[in-house]
């Protein structure tokens, strides 16, 4: 008897219900990853994620080999590849993690159709990608929660299954060929400071985070220069770490920092349940407001300056340059940069979301689009009219200006918080750095007027 485990965004051995089920029920297991050219077609391919993915697949293969198995990698349409493997191995079951995006649902439908008549069945597992299955925590009368606080309350009261260990041994049918695991070295155009992927790396990071970071999280999570967040997002994005296990481990650590960290993981589940109920929100306004986002040559010029980290507002530019360099950005930076684009410049959130998806190693259709919508005021923010002032925010979250000096070398000569207002300094102290792109008050008024008319 054989079973197939189709890996997607769940590239791990620990706490993996599909793998556990397959190892239990079958003598032979095919751990399969399909490189799907469809991902490129829908524009979701990005160099940073391709490199991190290669790390994750390499590590998964190594972990499987230690247990007597190996990873089977194939290129092609997942439905066709799976059908062919069912034919050649006689597999009776195909296990896959349930996803919420339209893409993942479509893949599951196509898999089911491809298996028809083969005698094999598709088993979709919930709560592999999220801590709790989307749809498990619902308000009485509706299909999803549109507001975070009540969702968080109900989510926190739910029972979470105990994390599963990794299988000790498994056997892969020897006749199944693999196209080989991709390598990071073969990916071009990666951000120079990109983190290394893989389950082992993720587990080591989680362990050191529990030991050294989590207790200070509540105080440090908004401090841009302090860099006091877990940086686990790419491991969660690729499923090299299980969200449920992260919640368990954090709860076991205990304390205010752990509570605050678990709350952020709940945001991740929250956005998943919104998108699961409203898949169109990946591209369309969740709460349409009748926006007429600015377009035309001025708008294009401003969007380009924003992408390049040359808006003349140092904290926004620092965040955008961190993104380019690391393929990752601090959450406070993401909030500021997104608010600047959508509210101060009044440009369409989709422009910003697309640029983030080009670079973010944790770039995720669910979390990226839903957070962009939250900031733009078209999503689930209960105060959609709020505009973050980059100067006030900079003084609060980068009080000494260290984050800005780190990422904006042109301003390194300016000491202390004065770095946030370079336009007040003599020209020689800000050589090569642009003047502010817009006046903040003007931007804010334009957004408010547009809202009133909309
Ligand atoms: P920590 O502060 O250590 O938080 C722990 C984990 O909680 C994160 O790894 C993440 O999985 C989850 N989390 C934290 N905040 C959020 C949030 N607001 N929404 C959903 N999950 C959250 N996160 C992504 O994973 N992928 C994205 O594509 C993404 N795009 C974003 C775009 C914008 C405009 C904004 C404002 C936020 C975005 N986020 C995204 C959410 C958040 O910024 C990142 O998850 C976080 O910065 C990752 O760093 P960390 O792992 O150190 O987070």
Amino- and carboxy-terminal Cα gap: 61 Å
How many strand units?
5
Q: What top-tier CATH class of the largest domain fits best?
A: Mainly Alpha
Largest sheet: 5 strands, parallel
Bound molecules: flavin-adenine dinucleotide
CATH architecture of the largest domain: Orthogonal Bundle
What does the overall shape look like?
A: globular
Percent range of helical residues = 40-55%
Note the run of SSEs as H and E.
Answer: EHEHHEHEHEHHHHHHHHHHHHHH
Radius of gyration: 23 Å
Instruction: Tell me the strand percentage band.
Output: 5-15%
- CATH superfamily annotation of the largest domain: DNA Cyclobutane Dipyrimidine Photolyase, subunit A, domain 3
- The strand line-up of the biggest sheet is 3-2-1-4-5
Q: Output mean pLDDT.
A: 95
CATH topology of the largest domain, which one?
A: DNA Cyclobutane Dipyrimidine Photolyase, subunit A, domain 3
Number of domains: 3
What are the segments in which pLDDT stays under 50 over at least 5 consecutive residues? none
Number of helices: 19
The helix/strand class is: alpha/beta
Task: Please give a structural write-up.
Its EC number is 4.1.99.3. The protein has 454 residues and is of the alpha/beta class. The chain has three domains: 2-128, 3-Layer(aba) Sandwich (Rossmann fold), CATH 3.40.50.620; 130-160 and 199-277, Serine Threonine Protein Phosphatase 5, Tetratricopeptide repeat (Alpha Horseshoe), CATH 1.25.40.80; 297-453, DNA Cyclobutane Dipyrimidine Photolyase, subunit A, domain 3. It is 48% helix and 6% strand. The chain contains 19 helices and five strands. It has helices spanning 17-25, 37-41, 47-66, 78-89, 102-115, 148-156, 199-213, 217-220, 233-237, 243-253, 256-277, 297-308, 314-326, 331-344, 349-359, 365-376, 390-397, 402-407, 440-453, and strands at residues 2-7, 28-35, 72-75, 93-97, 121-125. Strands 3-2-1-4-5 form a five-stranded parallel beta sheet, with helices on both faces. α11 (256-277) packs across α16 (365-376). The mean pLDDT is 95. Flavin-adenine dinucleotide binds next to α9, α11, α14 and α16.
């Amino acid at each position: 008897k054989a079973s197939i485990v189709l890996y997607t965004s769940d590239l791990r051995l620990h706490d993996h219900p599909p793998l556990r089920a397959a190892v239990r029920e079958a003598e032979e297991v095919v751990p399969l990853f399909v490189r799907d050219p469809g991902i490129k077609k829908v524009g979701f391919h990005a160099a940073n994620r391709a490199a991190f993915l290669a790390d994750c697949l390499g590590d998964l293969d190594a972990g499987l080999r230690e247990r007597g198995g190996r990873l089977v990698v194939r290129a092609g349409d997942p439905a066709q590849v799976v059908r062919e493997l069912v034919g050649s191995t006689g597999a009776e079951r195909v296990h896959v993690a349930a996803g919420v995006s339209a893409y993942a649902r479509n893949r599951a439908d196509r898999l089911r159709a491809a298996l028809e008549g083969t005698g094999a069945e598709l088993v979709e597992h919930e709560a592999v990608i999220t801590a709790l299955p989307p749809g498990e925590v619902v308000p009485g009368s509706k299909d999803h929660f549109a507001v975070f606080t009540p969702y968080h309350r109900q989510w926190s009261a739910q029972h979470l299954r105990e994390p599963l260990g990794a299988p000790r041994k498994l056997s892969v049918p020897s006749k199944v060929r693999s196209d080989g695991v991709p390598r990071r070295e073969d990916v071009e155009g990666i951000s120079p400071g990109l983190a290394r992927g893989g389950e082992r790396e993720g587990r080591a990071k989680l362990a050191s985070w529990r030991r050294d970071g989590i207790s200070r999280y509540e105080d440090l999570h908004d401090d841009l220069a302090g860099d006091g967040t877990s940086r686990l997002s790419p491991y969660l994005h690729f499923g090299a770490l299980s969200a449920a296990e992260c919640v368990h481990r954090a709860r076991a650590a205990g304390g205010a920092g752990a509570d605050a960290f678990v709350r952020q993981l709940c945001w991740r589940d929250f956005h998943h349940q919104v998108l699961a109920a409203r898949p169109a929100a990946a591209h369309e306004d969740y709460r349409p407001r009748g926006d007429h986002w600015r377009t035309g040559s001025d708008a294009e010029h401003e969007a380009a300056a924003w992408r390049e980290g040359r808006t003349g507002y140092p904290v926004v530019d620092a965040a955008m340059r961190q993104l380019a360099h690391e393929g990752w950005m601090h959450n406070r930076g993401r909030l500021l940069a997104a608010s600047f684009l959508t509210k101060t410049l009044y440009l369409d959130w989709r422009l910003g979301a697309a640029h983030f998806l080009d670079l973010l190693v944790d770039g995720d259709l669910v979390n990226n689009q839903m957070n962009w919508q939250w900031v733009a005021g078209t999503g689930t923010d209960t105060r959609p009219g709020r505009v973050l002032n980059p100067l006030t925010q900079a003084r609060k979250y980068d009080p000494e200006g260290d984050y800005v000096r780190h990422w904006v070398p042109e301003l390194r000569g300016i000491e202390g918080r004065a770095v946030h207002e370079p336009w007040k300094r003599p020209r020689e102290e800000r050589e090569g750095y642009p003047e502010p792109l817009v006046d903040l008050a003007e931007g804010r008024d334009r957004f408010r007027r547009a809202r009133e008319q909309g």
